[in-house]
Design a protein that fits this description.
about 10% strand
Length: about 250
Amino acid sequence: MFDSIGPEQQAKLEKCQELIDYRFQDLSLLLSALTHASGATHRLASNERLEFLGDAVLGLTVCHWLFEEYPEYSEGDLTKIKSAVVSRRACGKIAWQIGLDQCLIVGRGVTRNRSFPRSLVSDVFESIVAAMFLDGGPDVVRERLKRWLGEEVRMAVQSQGSGNYKSALQQRAQRELNCTPVYRLKRESGPDHHKAFLISAVVNDEEYAPAWGENKKEAEQKAAANALAAMNNEPLPFPPPQESDEAET
């Protein structure tokens, strides 16, 4: 598939194996993964086919990871987290952090410009994932992706959780206290067509500061946010109203 490997390519193969902490049994897989179309003898000798497989392997591995680690998150929550973690931006960022840009095998025209586009480096990240999958199996991929993408997952969960406090509270309660939060309706206010609800979160028999919402779903989200803040000794994002305020509601 390839012409004879020169010393520069051999050096890049060795460098890449050090960076990803994996020794390939079949070096031709790694050579394919690192070779951009501009540096290949023909298109099938480039990393494009591995990139195709790597995209699927990356998605499946991250989905399995999230499915196991976040059992209380809904399909919608998991989809948002996964989309952020496997985005081209995230993959390109991780590839640069690993140093894969140092290992690319490209054509002469591209070599002159050492500032590779992030999309190109992102593609190589996916092709490397596929090469490791074919050479070492899913466990090799899973172990490294957890190492490389752990912070991306944490940030995505934190960001996603900011809009879904109930999921975050339920996950925390079940992990730390082995219980499930319940929500207590404290008060209703307003006419039937425009009611407001005051609801509190109760975790392990401890009731936290209630919050008002224009519907029960909104009030429960805000109540969960108050509970999480209290657990973290942080200011309440939705402090309960004073008695005079409640009387006006």
